[in-house]
Design a protein that fits this description.
Shape: globular
CATH class of the domain at 2-151 and 239-308: Alpha Beta
CATH superfamily of the domain at 2-151 and 239-308: Alpha/Beta hydrolase fold, catalytic domain
CATH topology of the domain at 2-151 and 239-308: Rossmann fold
CATH architecture of the domain at 2-151 and 239-308: 3-Layer(aba) Sandwich
Structural class: alpha/beta
Radius of gyration: 18 Å
Number of strands: 9
Helix content: 25-40%
Largest sheet: 7 strands, mixed
Strand content: 15-25%
Number of helices: 11
Length: about 325
C-alpha cells in the first residue's frame, strides 16, 4: 500500500480539507486479479462504484466535497484503469456478479469490518445491488445514481432494439480485433468524439466541462474494446430487480431529467420498489450529472447521510 497527500481543487460550495489523507493500493480478488483502490479522507466509509468503461475520474468533485468528513473509496474494475488487465478477452469474466465479488475484496482491504455506504453511477448501481444481495449485513446505506437494477440495454435510449445492436457491434469488433482498435481509438481521442457526446444528448455542454469528458473518452480508447463491449452486454444479462424489495437500509436514488442511457422512469421504478427509498431528480441534467451538477448532488447526499444513517453525520 502507498500513501500520499495532495491539495484538491475547490468545487463550488465544497468544504474539503486542504490536505486530506490519501491512501492507495491493490486488493486481490479470489481469482488472483489485482484491483486498484484509492481512499481519500477519514471518517465513515463511502465506496464509489464506476459506470461501464469508466475509471475513477467521474468522482472527482464528489471526492473533493466529501473527503473533509468521510473516507471516500474509489476503485477500478478489472481490465480498467490501474487494475490488472485480462490475459485473454475470450475468457474474461466481466459479469456484474464477478464485479460484486471484486467489490467485496476492495471493501475488505480498505474498510475491514467497518459499515459502508455504497454509491454507484450507471452500471455501478447494478454492482452495488448485487453486492447487497450477498452482503447486506455489511451495508448501512445505498446511493444509486443514474442507473438501473438490471436488463439495462432494453431501456438504453428507450429503444428495445439496443441489445441486438450491441450484440452485432461486439461480434464485429471480436472479428476485426486490432483493425477495430485502429479505427476507434483515434476517433475517441479526436474533437469529433466531444461533438458526438453533446450532439446526441449524452452530456450537456452547458454544464459539463470538456476536459472531464475528454478523460472519459481517453480511458475508453485505452481499453480493449472487445472486453468493453462484452462488459456492456453483461449489464443486459444481469438482473437484480428481485433484490430491491428486500432492501432494508436507507436508500437515496438520483435521477436526471435528460438521462438518455437510463431514463428517469427507471429511477422512479427503483424508488417504488425499495421500501422507504427517496428520490432526487436533477432538472436539465444528463447521464453525466456527476460532473454536470455536482453541488446539487453533494448537498442532497450529505443531508441524506446526516439524517438517515446513524454515525454518518460529519464529525
Amino acid at each position: 500500500m502507498t500513501a500520499s497527500s495532495s491539495t484538491p481543487r475547490a468545487t463550488g460550495a465544497s468544504v474539503a480539507s486542504p490536505d486530506p489523507l490519501i491512501r492507495s493500493g491493490f486488493a486481490t480478488a479470489d481469482d488472483g486479479v489485482r484491483l486498484y483502490w484509492r481512499a481519500v479522507g477519514e471518517g465513515p466509509v463511502l465506496v464509489c462504484n464506476n459506470g461501464v468503461g469508466v475509471s475513477t475520474y467521474f468522482w472527482r468533485y464528489f471526492v473533493e466535497f466529501f473527503s473533509a468528513h468521510y473516507t471516500v473509496v474509489l476503485w477500478d474494475y478489472r481490465a480498467h484503469g490501474r487494475s490488472d488487465r485480462v490475459a485473454d478477452w475470450r475468457t474474461a469474466d466481466m459479469s456484474i456478479e464477478r464485479l460484486a465479488k471484486d467489490l467485496r475484496a476492495v471493501i475488505n482491504a480498505v474498510a475491514g469490518d467497518a459499515p459502508v455506504v455504497l454509491v454507484g453511477h450507471s452500471m455501478g448501481c447494478q454492482v452495488l445491488f448485487e453486492y447487497y444481495r450477498n452482503h447486506a449485513d455489511r451495508v448501512v446505506g445505498l446511493v444509486p445514481m443514474l442507473g438501473s437494477a438490471g436488463k439495462t440495454l432494453e431501456t438504453f435510449f428507450d429503444y428495445s432494439g439496443s441489445p441486438r445492436l450491441f450484440e452485432i457491434a461486439s461480434r464485429v469488433v471480436d472479428q476485426r480485433g486490432a483493425a477495430s482498435h485502429a479505427i476507434m481509438r483515434p476517433l475517441l481521442r479526436s474533437p469529433l468524439a466531444w461533438f458526438i457526446t453533446w450532439r446526441f444528448d449524452l452530456v450537456d455542454p452547458m454544464y459539463a466541462r470538456r476536459e472531464d469528458m475528454v478523460k472519459y473518452l481517453g480511458h475508453i480508447s485505452r481499453l480493449d474494446l472487445r472486453v468493453f463491449l462484452h462488459n456492456v452486454l453483461e449489464v443486459q444479462k444481469h438482473d437484480a430487480w428481485d433484490v430491491l424489495p428486500t432492501i432494508t437500509v436507507p436508500t437515496l436514488v438520483v435521477a436526471a431529467e435528460r438521462d438518455a442511457f437510463t431514463p428517469m422512469w427507471l429511477s422512479r421504478k427503483i424508488v417504488t420498489t425499495i421500501p422507504g427509498a427517496e428520490l432526487l431528480v436533477l432538472a436539465d441534467a444528463s447521464h453525466a450529472a456527476l460532473i454536470e451538477q455536482p453541488e446539487n448532488i453533494h448537498h442532497r447526499v450529505q443531508r441524506f447521510l446526516e439524517q438517515r444513517i446513524p454515525g454518518f453525520a460529519p464529525r
